[in-house]
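In response to the reviewer comment on reproducibility (Comment 2.3), we provide here a single inverse folding case reported in full, input and output, so that an independent group could reproduce the run without further information from us. The structure tokens appear first.
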């Protein structure tokens, strides 16, 4: 099922209008202030490589508000779950399985209603696997991503210690 639908205007929901880049960045700065005060949700990225491709996947826990980093190149997003996504093309609620193209520079923000898997799939013609080389996918400082504060290729059992 691929349900891409506008989010109804309800109290407490993210706005249904298309946000500006400045609004998304303002949300991001507010989220960083909350993280400093209350701590953050740990989101552990998984890295997958195939000939000419790189996939980064994360599981976003239900109830999480988050922003993503803008990427340099066009790529695909695969989403499985239930999430409101604020995009530069408008607000959408994604339920079930969705595949979304992302244009260079696109920045997203969202709220997960249920545990949601989000995957970005990038061309990787040189088959690079190092954290430094993969950081070149981002237009902005990728260290802002909560997943970048987790050691590259960390395993859940390592983080529990």
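Designed residues, in position order:
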């Amino acid at each position: 099922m691929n349900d891409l639908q506008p989010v109804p205007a309800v109290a407490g929901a993210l706005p249904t209008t298309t946000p500006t880049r400045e609004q998304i960045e303002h949300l991001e700065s507010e989220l960083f202030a909350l993280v400093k005060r209350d701590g953050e949700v740990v989101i552990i990225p998984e890295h997958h490589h195939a000939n000419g491709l790189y996939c980064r996947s994360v599981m976003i826990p239900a109830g999480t508000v988050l922003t993503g980093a803008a990427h340099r190149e066009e790529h695909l997003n695969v989403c499985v779950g239930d999430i409101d996504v604020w995009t530069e093309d408008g607000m959408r609620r994604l339920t079930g399985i969705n595949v979304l193209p992302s244009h260079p520079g696109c920045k997203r923000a969202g709220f997960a209603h249920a545990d949601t898997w989000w995957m970005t799939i990038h061309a990787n013609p040189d088959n690079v696997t190092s954290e430094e080389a993969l950081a070149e996918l981002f237009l902005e400082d990728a260290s802002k991503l909560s997943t970048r504060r987790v050691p590259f290729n960390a395993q859940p059992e390592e983080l529990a210690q």
